[in-house]
User: Fold these one by one.
Assistant:
Number 1:
Amino acid sequence: MPAPSPPMARYLSRRLLQTAALLLVVSVVVFALILRAPGGPSILLDRNLGADEIARMRTILGLDQPLHVQYARWLRQVAGGNLGVSYTAGLPVREIIGQMLPNTLVLSAAALLLSLVVAIPAGVATAARPYTAFDHAVTFLCFFGVSIPVFWYGLMLIVLFSIVLGWLPPGGMYTIGGPRDLADLGRHLVLPALVLGTANMAIFARYTRSSTMAVLRQDYVRTARSKGLRERAVLYRHAFRNALLTIITVVGLQLPRLVGGAAITETVFAWPGMGSLAVRAAFERDYPMIMGITLVISAVVAASNLLVDLVYVYVDPRIRYE
Amino acid sequence: MDGGRTRPGLRAAAIVLAGALLAGIAGPAPVAAQGGGGTFTLPIIDNARMWPIVGGLPNILVNKVLYSTLVKYDPRNWQPVGDLAERWTLSDDRLTWTFALRRNVTWHDGRPFTARDVKFTIERLWLNPQVAFFQRGNIAEISRVDIVDDHTVRIVTRVPFVTLPVMLGYLTNILPEHILGTYTAEQLRNPVEFLRNPIGTGPFRFGESVLGSHVRLVAYDRYFGGRPRLDAIVFRVVADLEQQLAQLQTGQLDLMIIEPPQVPLVQRMPNVQIINAAQVNYTFVAFNNKVEPFTDRKVRQALTHAVDRKAILDKIYLGRGRLATGPINPLVQWAYTDRVHQFPYDPALAQKLLEEAGWQRGPDGIRRKGGQPLRITLDVDRGNPVREQTAVVVRQYWRDVGVDAEVRISEFNALLSRIRSRPNPLQTWTLWYITPPEADIMGYYHSTGTLNEFGYENPELDRLLEQGRATADPQARARIYQQAQRFMAWDAPVIFLVYPAEIQALSRRVQNWVPMGYRDALTHMTGVTIGR
């Protein structure tokens, strides 16, 4: 990446300002939505909790205040670097997210890596031989991968690999009481990474195929071929390099989903990450937790969009900071 | 311990190996004859807070083994027996209880447990309006606690409250004064530092908590009841039921609670047995007794006769339970009676009662009174198969007798907050209650009861329940509650459906498990062992 130049610094500061404004808007909308959703925090809805005690706890939690007062209090807290305390776990939200985020990143990175390693060669190869039997087979697999419901796919893998074959653990991240080493992590990672990676694998393969095919029709590819370059060099050095721009965009769009959006996969595999945390927080109306997760994920979305824009400049010299 | 080098191989081998790994046994060495060692693993659906002042099932379950209560329940008859307390007596004016505390109890940090801890927990936590104890309704009659000496406390109540010992065993854990005594009200509401390393007096002390993954409690060597035979209890965070089933089958979980639809699946797991465990509970279809037409006893009786509760027990609960006759569970043996008005399935009688109440069938088959159709919405929470099926079946039974009945399904959270709002906007709903093992049902059916979601108000029952709470003589008490049960059965404030068993899927490796509902079984863990 080039060293920050004055136009880049200007561009960056403008984008960061926009991001801050965006996060503020998102937080207002989410705050209003979750506090107006029917039901209340599940710690207030214990079957043994009477109306008086509920009222008392609402007062203690500040839930009897008008919405804008509650929001202002939350915002003041956040400005001080404090995301509040989770109703359910009783620990600071920042600490909980701090423990969950790395777990999700491990899973997401493994899934992303897996999908790219499979998808890019498959996409380039099918682009080189379009409309052959091989291409049709890969296309079929891609549609299969995109269409298969994640929870069902996950359960089928658990049944096959954990219950019938007994090769892999059905869920969790480490063997409890075990050594917490890479081998143990790897065994727990295989199934969820495969499930999470499959849909992306299919998407990436299709995009790689179509953008590589588009490039292969360009004049400079014909020139490269007529120079007598080997087909492999044409494909990877000339065509694929130019097709990469589309792929980066698509991968960039998936990044935020990989940080926050693995809710189903994480729940099915009891993976201790952001997605399953968000699902439980939503069911339990753990307001501080939901707000904290929203803020972090929104920040990641904004950051990854910014990152993609910066990478464009690096990959394609025709694009400049404006 | 070896973390996991399971090679591809036979399923049985994998299960044995997984079991060995979990049990914390290095290598395949056989377990010593008298038990010794092993880890018992059960699921929780979210992180446990380990703070017994607030509710939530994950929190409640972990607290059962981490902390102690003054009393707990005898598995044979559900009567209160000593836990931290050794014995207790009631004064003649029935207002002062003297509890003799065990002398050999230490907190997990080694400090001695004393009367100061009891006084602190009751006065500064349970009764403190700035803290909001979730079981406060059960102990609100306590006015103060006096320390007699290090091992004796006097608990004084405002009014005679003979159920106190039972209530002191129900989700009322004692907390350490020597740590929390200096906390401010704000810190007691959010004791973040304490929760990083919670200190209790239970048979298992805090080991580690990995958020989103598990809480591991390890045997406390100096536990006053003797060191538990297990080495550890692990509560795994597994929100998804299918994942729980998979972990049960592969031996990573030793226990899970299942619903009737899962019974056939679990029956096919060779490593798992099914136990119908007793729990003090009942399920019901509630009427909102404050609104028409449920203010009319004839209508309530008719809607009860219209429902084939036996069929519901047999088909939906798969027979795992007992037909309910009232709000007092048969496990409360001294008080329970089934010699009350019965409501056999009798649609003809139901129709007759509705007609007597003035609800006549219109040309469309729907009953009307004063031009108003008999339209009833039955609310149920989403996701529990037994309750959802019950709601659908009850709707059909009611339609059969001319009611324009509908089912509305909503999220549990939303449903309960509607029921708890005043006035309660619902007509009928189906839910359950798990109660202390007591006949005292004032909280649920007295006109001032904090959990009286039924809007039920009856001066006669109020009088009986007040009498029952103030009567110390066991035989006289039993007579009062038998009268209350007869009265309630006839008055039909709700349709009492079933006393359901808690269906436990328990690993066959587990020995000496006490067959109570798991909330209470967890207070009897010291003898439990894990075999091979």
Note: The mean pLDDT of chain A is 86.
Number 2:
Amino acid sequence: MNTVGMDLGTQRVKVVVLKDGEIASRGQALSGFDPAKAAEQAVNEALKKANLKLSDVAYFVATGSAMDIAPYANSTVSMMGADAKAGVFLFPKARTIIDVGAEEARAVKCDEKGIMVDFVVNERCAAGAGVFIEAMARALEVKLEDMGPLALKAERASPINASCVIFGESDVVSLIHRQEPKPEIARAVFDAMADRISSMIHRLGVNPDVVLVGGVAKDEGFVASLNRKLGVNVMVPDYPDYAGALGAALTAATRAKETQK
Amino acid sequence: MKEPSTVKGLEYWRWQEYHRVMPNKKWTNKDIITAGVDVGSVGSKAAIMINGEAYSWGITRTGSNSPESAIKALDYALEGTGLKVGDLKYIVGTGYGRVNVPMANKAITEIACHAKGANYIWGPSVRTVLDVGGQDIKAIRIDETGRVVSFLMNDKCAAGTGRGMEVFADLLQIPIEEIGDISLKVEKEPEPVSCTCVAFAKTEAMGLLRKGWSREKVLAAYTRAMAVRMANLINRVGLERELVITGGQSKNKGIVTRIETILGVKTLPSPNWREANSLDPMVAGAFGAALFAKALYDKAQKA
């Protein structure tokens, strides 16, 4: 049986195709102005890679901020629900799943079946999400993908006002004027973000094992800072940005079985 | 009013730096001349007082170096007065950069100074002061002497601060000194933007512009959201009349009018700083600091 999970995020749409409970392929597209169209593209790309047609798919589940306008979707699942499912599928001992995306960060507490027990979310403030790193990379005139490797070179972090993207930008500019080394500024950016995320998680409690997913999990600079702040080593799967889509595809598999009964 | 979009190469966020000497006021060597220097995150203000009465002031943009900004603001306040720094009997530094005011005899928090300054500008009936600065918002409860009773502060977030407004002025390409009036040019007040985070609100505003909203309407929706935030802060500290607004945004009519609507009370009218003999609520902190300087000087003389 084939199922598809679609995660319509604020920056990208991610798609995972499951064949009999195993990941068969992935696809993605930039959300742009028309996330529904982007989802179509990503689904077609992923199906093509898996040598499948639309009609071969038993069930589609959508998640992500634009899930309500997802094409093909038979139903939707909350982003927290999808995170929990994916986290336990990837790491069976996972009980806390942290998902840091472009514009939102959340942490989900779950049981051994991947059922969500509790969650916290930050969606009101850009300082705890991926756009914070993007804005600081722009201010530093460093490519986004170079921020992590740069930060890992630093022994210490520069002092910046990390509570707000807008204030952080001004601070980074004045640190550059003061000729503060760029690695130390980059590390300060990640430390600041890790600070915000970890204080959010502490409202939930840190239950090991801790898994980090979402696009920002690809950033080794952030992972290093988060490990230091949390005092645990978080586990990062391959393709962490596809966790939401994976969770949706797993949900689709369960729901497809239920409807078949 | 000039059409903003035709002004090329304009820095929309840039507000007017100016200095003023009150007409018809003279100083003599017998007078107690004191100064307050308020180094804010965005603007540096210095005020000079003769026997506790406002005499002159200067407002400049804070640069990357706080001590230099303090000196620049004080020099600006001294300009055209015939006074030199050495003539000042006592100087109090305040504001975000108060510890970096090199010529200050003492540093006092901006909360105490704004309270004192508001009492000086509007008189003893003031009980609640909303100070909207470049990098924070404070709601301060004061007594009839201008002493702080309690306060609440938001300093972790740019939403509603002067810095946040500058970002919007740039985004919408409207000079900062016009955004208040322009935000009021809507027939019907739109719903506030849903996200107060400046970074997210910027994205939301761009989406609204693409949807065909006018700049006035987008600005109204943003200003509304910021006013709601400020009104909430005032409600949390407890609103007691009279209410006044100090700081740079006291000049933003869009903010002031909306706060009045939301809270259902009128603020005491701000003096029109463009008039030659009017005080400027943006300088409230520096006035307060200069008054503290006078009190501290008097105390030192008695001792």
Note: Helices of chain B lie at 66-78, 110-122, 162-172, 179-183, 198-210, 215-237, 253-263, 284-302.
